[in-house]
């Protein structure tokens, strides 16, 4: 059997984690595991972790580390036969340490994108909240403007994708991500 490959991808909001992960997974035959998708599945299935996670997401907060690891690590346990790229986890040092004790990684990818590019991408980002599908009106537009390709439901722009909100989000991201990046270095 070919060697299994395990990678994580990190980067600030708008850096293209979701978009690039899809493409890498497709090109290299890996499973794309998205923490946001796991959270949404757990919310839909009303699992205990999903019910807890929902209260934080409604307030625009990150889900606490212990809820996130409880939700995610068992799913990774089901993936022992597959190569995967994990997107959206770990976001904190505690999550990175929990992941490290559960499996060996081959690569940690860190997307380093200039601020002006992040602003531009987020200004044009439209999402389909129930699925987490992401579009960009310039780079990757939906077939019909404002409408999700798969369900035909409306797309929205997130309040915190506004350029004014981005600086605060980035500051928060840098504070939390720096220890994770140092850990992987
Ligand atoms: N021009 C351009 N836009 C991109 C690229 N990668 C992602 N995007 C767009 O930038 C926005 C942010 O990407 P997304 O994958 O949601 O980033 P995430 O927040 O890191 O998961 C979306 O609207 C994407 O369609 C890229 O390589 N070039
Ligand atoms: N590793 C994580 N740690 C804490 N919360 C997370 C994590 N991954 C996802 N979440 C929660 O789930 C939400 C949706 O995740 P995601 O689809 O990656 O969206 P976003 O790109 O807006 O962060 C996040 O806004 C956050 O509240």
Describe the structure.
- It holds the Pfam family ADK_lid.
- Residues 125-160 form the Adenylate kinase active site lid domain.
- It catalyses: GTP + AMP = GDP + ADP.
- This protein is of the alpha/beta class and 185 residues long.
- The chain has a domain at 6-113 and 168-184: Rossmann fold.
- It is built from seven helices and six strands.
- It has helices at 17-28, 35-44, 48-58, 65-77, 93-102, 115-123, 163-184; strands at 6-10, 31-34, 84-87, 107-110, 125-128, 133-136.
- Strand 5 and strand 6 (133-136) form a beta hairpin.
- Helix 2 packs across helix 3 and helix 3 (48-58) crosses helix 4.
- The chain is globular and about 45 Å long.
- It binds guanosine-5'-diphosphate and adenosine-5'-diphosphate.
Keywords, separated by commas or semicolons:
single chain, 185 residues, alpha/beta, Rossmann fold, four-stranded parallel sheet, two-stranded antiparallel sheet, 7 helices, globular, binds guanosine-5'-diphosphate, binds adenosine-5'-diphosphate, transferase, Adenyl_kin_sub, nucleotide-binding
Q: What secondary-structure arrangement, pairings included, does this model have?
A:
Blueprint lengths: L5 E5 L6 H12 L2 E4 H10 L3 H11 L6 H13 L6 E4 L5 H10 L4 E4 L4 H9 L1 E4 L4 E4 L26 H22 L1
Parallel strand pairs: 1-3, 1-4, 2-3
Antiparallel strand pairs: 5-6
Helix pairs in contact: 2-3, 3-4, 4-5
This protein binds guanosine-5'-diphosphate and adenosine-5'-diphosphate.
The site of adenosine-5'-diphosphate has 14 residues, from α2 and α3.
Family: Belongs to the adenylate kinase family.
Protein name: Adenylate kinase 3
Pfam families: ADK (PF00406), ADK_lid (PF05191)
């Amino acid at each position: 059997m070919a060697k299994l490959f395990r990678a994580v991808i990190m980067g600030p909001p708008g850096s293209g984690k979701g978009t690039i992960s899809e493409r890498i997974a497709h090109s290299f035959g890996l499973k794309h595991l998205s923490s946001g998708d796991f959270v949404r599945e757990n919310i839909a299935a009303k699992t205990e972790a999903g019910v807890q996670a929902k209260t934080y997401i409604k307030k625009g907060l990150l889900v606490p580390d212990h809820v996130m690891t409880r939700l995610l690590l068992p799913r990774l346990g089901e993936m022992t036969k597959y190569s995967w790229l994990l997107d959206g986890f770990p976001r904190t040092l505690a999550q990175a340490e929990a992941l490290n004790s559960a499996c060996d990684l081959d690569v940690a990818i860190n997307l380093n994108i200039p601020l002006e590019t992040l602003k531009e991408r987020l200004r044009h980002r439209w999402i389909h909240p129930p699925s987490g599908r992401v579009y960009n009106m310039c780079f990757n537009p939906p077939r019909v403007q404002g409408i999700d390709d798969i369900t035909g439901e409306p797309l929205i722009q997130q309040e915190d994708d506004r350029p004014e909100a981005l600086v605060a989000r980035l500051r928060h991201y840098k504070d939390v991500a720096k220890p994770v990046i140092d850990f992987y270095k």
